[in-house]
Amino acid sequence: MAITLTNIKDLFSIAAAICVGFWAIYSTIILKEERIAELNVLALEKTVESRSPITSSISTEEIKTDNGEMIVIATVKISNEGNEFARVNINNSVMELFGIDFKNNKAKYSSLRYLKPSLYTSSSKFFSPYLDISPQETYEISFATKLVNKGTYYFNFLSKKSSKSTKLHKENTNSPSYVDYSIGAGKHVVFN
């Protein structure tokens, strides 16, 4: 069999068709997977870019007085471990104090009262009812009260928070305007 110019041309056409086939497979499968991976990385970067995890915790210091009463200083530590600014409401109703009565092995919460943050006691300075927290920043706010009756008490810190990412989350989930995001912490104190 003699190799003719037509045979060589046909072999090149077959080889070209095979190359086009491999390129089509590569383009649709491999490049598509690479693009999906690239989009996933971009989505992850966007998520990390706009996170504002605000955390809170409570610690207490109990001081017994000479007349049998107890002063409790509850300190709330609020930290912004994210990478965007966040706002936390600090008004006169963010710290609640409950008395707890145990009857029939059930806890009954009673005698609710709100504690004002110690920073509000200054008459020479004005404090806004919110706290703007920068990324990687921590604040401590103290609340002091006197306990006269012995028993078990519960300090409950609950505050609204807002940030760019929480607002975006509300929009993306079609949350009603009255829905707010919050942070909170609680601690029991026993006065014997």
**Overall form:** rod-shaped
What is the terminal separation in angstroms? Answer: 110 Å
Percentage of residues assigned to helices: 25-40%
Mean pLDDT metric: 81
Strand content: 35-45%
What is the count of DSSP helices, taking H or I runs of 4+ residues?
2
Provide the gyration radius in Å: 32 Å
Task: Return residue spans where pLDDT drops below 50 for at least 5 consecutive residues.
Answer: none
Q: What is the number of beta strands?
A: 9
User: Which sequence of SSEs, written as H and E, runs from N to C?
Assistant: HEEEEEEEEHE
Main beta-sheet annotation: 6 strands, antiparallel
Secondary structure class reads alpha+beta
Give a quick precis of the structure.
This protein is α+β, with helices and mostly antiparallel strands and about 190 residues long. It contains two helices and nine strands, in the order H-E-E-E-E-E-E-E-E-H-E.
What is the element layout, followed by pairings?
Elements: H1 5-49, E1 54-64, E2 70-80, E3 86-89, E4 95-103, E5 106-115, E6 130-133, E7 138-147, E8 151-163, H2 164-172, E9 181-191
Antiparallel strand pairs: 1-2, 2-7, 3-6, 3-8, 4-5, 4-8, 8-9
